[in-house]
Input
Amino acid sequence: MSEPAWTRGGRGGTAAVLGDLEVAVGALREAADWLGEAALALATAALVAPQRAPWLQDPAMACSREAEGLRDLSRRLRGAVDAYRAAESGAHHGVSAETYALDVLGDQLGRMWLGVRETVLHGPAGLIGAIPRMPTTGTVNEATANVGLGLTGDAYGTVVAHVRAAVRAAERSLEPALAGVEVDGPGFSAGAPRTVEELMGRLDWLGVQGGGRIAIETVTDAAGTHHLVYIPGTQDPTLWDASPADLEADLAAVTGEWCDAAQAVVEAMRAHGIGAEEPAMLVGHSQGGMIAAVVSATLASTYRITQIVTAGSPTGRIALPATVDALQLENLRDVVPGLDGRPNPATPTRTTVTHDRRHSAQDDAPDASHTVLQAHGLPGYAQTARLVDGGLDPSTRAWVEGAAPMLAGGSSQMRLYAPVTEAASGASR
Output
């Protein structure tokens, strides 16, 4: 059985080429319009002055024929693009209606079995304890969330902006403002990562540190100095905790807006002394991936951000500069990457790997993505990263080749940066 994983975009991706073909469709139409206007002008001139310019009639007819030929070519190319894109979409989702139906049935049977078992063994308290372990991703996943929540509508940005404004107003009265970051403990030596799977391990470690902390790993070798910046996912679902990795950051970053979590990353990069010409890779899980995209899009002229790696992040509404080579990992059963209601653009510098881990053939799968938490967890994304490291397809191999200088291993220095609020900084003075 082949591993159920699909790639969109990247330098080896069909969809990226389709984008170029769509540009060609527009160019052909524009050229046809110009020729059509020229044919009309020539024909008009020939009619107005038939004695003076009879020779204009043949060029007018020739221009008209060429214009119609270009329009026909444009229509046929448009049809080919649509057909290829439909095939790409089918391959991307990769799971038939029958498979989804079986997943839903499996979820229901799993719920019944766990509920009965835990109730018999432990009574009502056992049933409550079983709820987090009950299968859910057959019915709750990216596809069903988009349909159920209506996330693809034009009003998405407006709705998110209104919700964010309300959350931000509440936070201003309940939590102290971000003042900057401070070095958290002594730096320590580490073995620099060589694989994308190791990057996922770094993110897993960072999540344990909590408090919205950001880690920066610096490698100095014969080629110079480069940095890997690790950004955590959402760590504060409340409206009063001081961590910038909060709900307001989710609502801002999903549409590409700046927020305290992005500012904290920039403050950490500044405090770390990252030079404008030193290559940097930004790596983030969930919200951290969105923040990596926002920072790289906003500060492309300030820092030399060469790559970003995201895992389980809704970044389809964030435009990335062409100088940033993005690798974006998504679990087909993870609801989070679909919360922006828009797939990632399939461009040569944006490679999205979608992995149906629930039907994974890997023997050592750390999870089967049966629950929402399993589907979004970093242990599972390490499994997807392993596919990339193994050379999944031409696009992922091209990304790995381009990122080779950043993942060359060797020794490194790791340092943590903790966000500081105005209240805390005032108290320390």
